[in-house]
Design goal:
The protein has one domain: Alpha-Beta Barrel (TIM Barrel). The chain is built from twelve helices and eight strands. Helix 2 runs parallel beside helix 12, helix 5 crosses helix 6 and helix 11 runs antiparallel to helix 12.
Length: 259
């Protein structure tokens, strides 16, 4: 199943797809593989798999520390693709979206990346710091290879730019729920649910929301108003706190979040 299909199916079922985010290689590749399998068993509809990067601009402290641990363990983009390939051989069928900064992908080459990622079993990618205005070559290669693209929208995105983001995306549009970086928060912005409902009606793509969603109350507040809900920092914090028992801690949290 593709990313787009997973979110569309959730909409048809009048619910929101649950999309966990973890950083590949945190604390090591063996645990990441177990986490991916565990997340699927816990009911994840799709997975956002982070490629660690040394100089992030969108990540809060929790995700930054995870990337540092992963890089210290020797994780590379090639290694992340090998992880996806192994997961696919272990009956992981949920769609996988790679989450990366553009530098390692550009270094590999867009065509090489897309073909290698698709061969490994990834469905698409979100290149966080690649704006749609500069993504013509990447999007062309991705479309030619049926590799799904995801682009970011935010509270400050203009209507004109939103149309461009929607046109460039083939998987879904990812809405950043707040200004700033990733991380947990006590309360969601007051007008977020209504904003998402209105935004979803204007897009041709499914809509997912992330950044700061960390509690069952947050998930319940957004359920059905958006096609996908991404939870990352709340899960990654558990990996940091429970490196030896990360699967149990994370899957228990996922089940609580899903309700």
């Amino acid at each position: 199943m593709k990313l787009r299909e997973a979110l569309q199916r959730a909409r048809e079922e009048r619910r929101s797809a649950f999309i966990p985010f973890i950083v590949a290689g945190d604390p090591d590749m063996a645990m990441s593989e177990k986490l991916i399998i565990g997340l699927q068993k816990a009911g994840a509809d799709a997975l956002e798999l982070g490629v660690p990067f040394s100089d992030p601009v969108a990540d809060g402290v929790t995700v930054q520390r995870a990337a540092e641990r992963s890089l210290a363990a020797g994780t590379t983009l090639k290694g992340v693709l090998e992880l996806v390939k192994r997961a696919r051989t272990r009956s992981v069928t949920m769609p996988i979206c790679l989450f990366s900064y553009v530098n390692p992908v550009y270094k590999m080459g867009y065509a090489n990346f897309v073909k290698a990622a698709k061969t490994a079993g990834a469905n698409g990618a979100l290149l966080v710091d690649l704006p749609p205005e500069e993504a013509t070559e990447y999007c062309k290669i991705a479309r030619e290879n049926a590799f799904e693209t995801v682009f970011l929208s935010s509270p400050t995105t203009s209507e004109e730019r939103l149309r461009l983001i929607d046109a460039c995306s083939t998987g879904f549009v990812y809405y950043v729920s707040r200004e700033g970086v990733t991380g947990t928060q006590e309360a969601l912005p007051q007008a977020l649910a209504e904003k998402l409902s209105n935004l979803r009606r204007s897009l041709s793509n499914p809509l997912a929301v992330g950044f700061g969603i960390s509690t069952p109350e947050h998930v319940a507040q957004l359920a059905g108003r958006v096609d996908g809900i991404v939870v990352g920092s709340a899960l990654i914090k558990l990996v940091e706190q429970n490196p030896a028992n990360a699967v149990e801690a994370v899957t228990e949290k996922v089940r609580a979040l899903k309700g």
